[in-house]
C-alpha cells in the first residue's frame, strides 16, 4: 500500500481535470488584464515571515529547516511572498505590480479541516494611489466565476476599518478579545465583553449593532446613520457603486461583522460564496499595512480562492465524453497522423491500441466515450445512440 503522509492527498481524475480548466480560465483572464504570473518559493524564512503575519496565522505555520540549516516554514501565505518580491525587484516607478498565481499553500490542520495542504489561485494588485483598483480586482473575480459556471456566486463585503475604528478607544487587549469573539461567532461572549468592559458609550452602541449590520447595500446607509459624520465607509461605498453600475448589484451582499485580524487588513474585505456550498470559497481584501511592514508606501489588494472547492462546483466538474480512435492495425505512425486530424476539432480523444474491433468498442463504451472511430476506414459509430443495441464482448473475448 502506497500510503500518503497524514494530512496530504492526491487529486486525480475528473476533479483534477476540472481544477486545471479553472486554473487555465483564471490565469488567462487575469493575464489579459496585465497580471503577470508569479511562482513563489516553496520555503519561506521564518525571520522574514513571523513578524509580518497575524498571530493566528503564525500558529498554523509548518516549521522546517532548509538543507542549509535555516529556520523556515512551508509556504503558508503567497501574499507575503508577492509583497517581498515587489520590495526587492521593483522600483517605485514600476508600480503598481499586478500578479496572479496558482500554487499550493500549507497550514496545520484544524478541525473540521483535515488536510494540511490546499490548492490556491489568487491575484494581488500592489501599490496604487487612486480609487478603482479595488473594483477592478473584484470585477475580474466575478468575470472569472461567471466563466467557470459559478454565475450565482456572491461577494460578501465588509470593511476592516469600520470595526477597527469602533474598538480604537478600547484597551488593546480588550479590543483583541472583542474581535476574536466576533470572528468565532461567539455572540454571547461578544455581548458580555461589551457589557463588562470600559467602552465609551458611542462606540459601545456601534459595537452592539455590528452583528446585525448585514444584508444588501442599504446596510451602508444604516451604518452611516449609526456612526454619524465621518463614517469610515467611503471605499466600500465606491466598490458597491461601481459593481452595481457594471451589472453585478444582485451578486453583492454586505456584512459589517465580517472579520479579519486587525492590523493585517486595512479597508474593504470580502468572502466568496456559491450556491449549494455553505462555506467560503476564499476571499481577500485591502492590506496596506503589510506594505508598510516591508518598507513600502501605498495600497494593496488581493485575494485567494480554494481551487479544489471552486473546481468541484464549476461547469468543468463533468468532463465532456471523449472520442475513442481505434488504430485498426495500422502502423503507429499512420494511426497517429490520422488521429491528429481529429484533435483539431477540439473534442478530447483517446487512442485505442486493442488488437481487435470488438475489444476496442467494449472499452470505449465502458469508458463513457461519445463515439468510436475506425482510423483505417474513417467510419464513426455514435455510442450515445448505439450502445443500447450494441453487443459488447465479455472479458474472455478481450484482446487489449
What does this structure look like?
The structure is a single chain. The chain has 16 helices and 16 strands. With 400 residues, it is α+β, with helices and mostly antiparallel strands. The protein folds into 2 domains: 13-313, BirA Bifunctional Protein, domain 2 (2-Layer Sandwich), CATH 3.30.930; 323-397, 3-Layer(aba) Sandwich (Rossmann fold). The strands form 3 sheets. The chain has a 9-stranded mixed β-sheet with strand order 1-5-6-12-11-10-7-9-8, with helices on both faces. Strand 3 (63-65) and strand 4 form a beta hairpin. Helix 1 runs antiparallel to helix 5, helix 1 (13-32) crosses helix 13 and helix 5 (133-147) packs parallel to helix 11 (234-248). The longest helix is centred in the N-terminal third of the chain and has 20 residues, at 13-32. The model is unreliable at 387-400 (pLDDT under 50).
- How many separate domains make up the residues? 2
Count of helices? Answer: 16
Shape: elongated
Nearest-integer average pLDDT: 89
Helix content: 25-40%
Low-confidence stretches: 387-400
Strand order of the largest sheet: 1-5-6-12-11-10-7-9-8
Characterize the biggest β-sheet.
Answer: 9 strands, mixed
Strand composition percent: 15-25%
Reported by name, the CATH topology of the largest domain is BirA Bifunctional Protein, domain 2
Give the beta-strand count: 16
Q: Write down the Rg.
A: 27 Å
Structural class: alpha+beta
Name of the CATH architecture of the largest domain: 2-Layer Sandwich
- Corresponding CATH superfamily of the largest domain: Bira Bifunctional Protein, Domain 2
Distance separating the two termini? 27 Å
CATH C-level class of the largest domain is: Alpha Beta
